[in-house]
């Protein structure tokens, strides 16, 4: 693994690819990577709930599924009157459906009794008329106190009903799929410093091999005596990785752990919601990460980061030299998060949720200093405008935006884009991109 300094190899199983400190040191806002300012939508499509991490129902080949004319999204949600900072402890998966990709109807809670104390993000597969919902089970159901153990699980048995209106019906059966092994992937008892991660399962069928995989967020175990990061224990705790599991039979409920696709030891602690978009014979790997999860000496942003390789297992190189693909403007640094990339015709589109607006600070921790009414007002709690992205080789460029919640229909031709700059310099929040 290359980490740009001697003695950074980590014992045991290792990723073929690494995000190095030298690469991450080149992270910088540019016109091509800075999203326009986001404002609240004219109409909130889910006013009764906070909506954040969201994923699309997809076919095995990764295309967005259309079920009898409907597209379906799944989201982490919480009551809209709850303080935004408390939402993760009560997160519930709800689904929404749309016939036109613009107006979405609430379908309700997917299931009432998931595994774990809390439910976090995942992915959804539509396979031969059945729905498989992969998600993260956080904590142990029945425990007296809130715990942070994380397992990758799946629910099977969901079937769509489309007689008159769309609905997803059970009964659902929940299956524990994977736990960290302590060798390739860090267990909670091995973690030090920051949080540990074993979550965000994402189903992927490799178009080149036909093999079936799960990607997930994890951490690389770094023993205390390791010389990784030059032996610096502070840097060693920044050990995020993109994990991989394989299903030998293609069964969505049977998995074996594999070596990680990529790690960021000495660079970043959390590589959230990893997913791959095959394009032009190459594999584009995307993750979301926060500014505060970068190791000391590195300045990153709340942003979408990306890497590209000629095969699923790598070797991966960072897009745009640093890995930065999409970030928020400097004067709205936390306006969007949890990006998910999906192909549409000649472009790729990027979905995210509308996080905090009218909020310029050096840390999201400052939200807690606001009056409760202001915390609620400044939290978007809905989907952000969909971004349009050009991806060519190792370079990406934001082309423009669509509406909040807009997921175009499969054959929908998008209008030409112009990048119109009305004020300010790159990254200052003065850029406005429009689609015509």
UniProtKB/TrEMBL annotation:
Belongs to the glycosyl hydrolase 68 family. The keyword Zinc does not apply. Keywords: Glycosyltransferase, Transferase. GO terms for molecular function: levansucrase activity. Gene3D superfamilies: Glycosyl hydrolase domain, family 43. Its EC number is 2.4.1.10. InterPro entries: Glyco_hydro_68, Glyco_hydro_beta-prop_sf. Residues 23-32 have a biased composition (Basic and acidic residues). It is an enzyme of class 2 (transferase). This is Levansucrase. It holds the Pfam family Glyco_hydro_68. One of its GO terms (biological process) is carbohydrate utilization. Residues 1-42, 417-436 are annotated as: Disordered.
